[in-house]
Design brief:
Distance between the termini: 15 Å
Number of strands: 2
Largest sheet: 2 strands, antiparallel
Structural class: mainly alpha
Shape: elongated
Strand content: under 5%
Order of helices and strands: HHHEEH
Radius of gyration: 18 Å
Number of helices: 4
Helix content: over 70%
Strand order of the largest sheet: 1-2
Low-confidence stretches: none
Mean pLDDT: 92
Length: 157
Amino acid sequence: MKKLFYLQSLVILAGTLFAWYTIFGDFVRFFQVEGTVFKIKDCLAPNPVLTPCFWGSWAFLAALVWSFLILRFPEEKQKKHQKYLVILLVAGTIFGWSNFSLGWLKFMANEGKPTVGCSGVVVANPFSTPCFWGSLFFTASLLSALVAFKKQKSLVS
């Protein structure tokens, strides 16, 4: 069971690193254009705090911390917290795919021409956006958490 929890944490760690790497790049790009990270209104590009990537990165970080805590919990607490982690990852997956879908619809409405993506940069392909890749990481994290949860339930039954 421990190996599944470690695998789960590893997959969530990958998503967390990707998300925060993206956010760091967004803040650097924003600072280069605006000269500050505190400007919210009348910006050439959206402040990263206002993008879905920013909020998805916090969800990944919360899931990562939770997955590490599950590793340390006694067995009787692990099952309950694993269930809650799965719920968080379901919400993150829905959030990610919803944002990707909105970007994809925007791209299609623009007849396949480059559009501003979820990170505030122009994209020529919605499948190259951080929302797409973040959604894949959320999905992989959810699947790994579900496998661990199902295995946990079968051990108890």
